[in-house]
Write a structure and sequence with these properties.
By secondary structure, the chain is of the alpha+beta class. Helix content is about 35%, strand content about 30%.
Length: about 100
Amino acid sequence: MNNLVTKTVDLIYKMDHNDQLNQVIEAIKLKRNQLSRKAVAKFMIGDIAGFTGRRGIQHSGKVTKVAQKYVTIDCGTHGRWRVPATHCTKLAIGEEV
């Protein structure tokens, strides 16, 4: 772990009350939400995007829908996938690779 994570974990272990832990949890949720929305902002309908599936297989296709946290990618014969935007990589703008 890097130094910042180590310090943060040490501080969490020193907390004595649930209220303190709840504040940390809320801050983590807010940060994750921010990262998700930032990732979604990179994609537009028609872009070519890729991701690694659960079994390690690389998929790529055309973005057909952009939601608040997820991107729907049409991979042709490999199906249509609803993927968290944080797991996607933009490969091209609006044309097939």
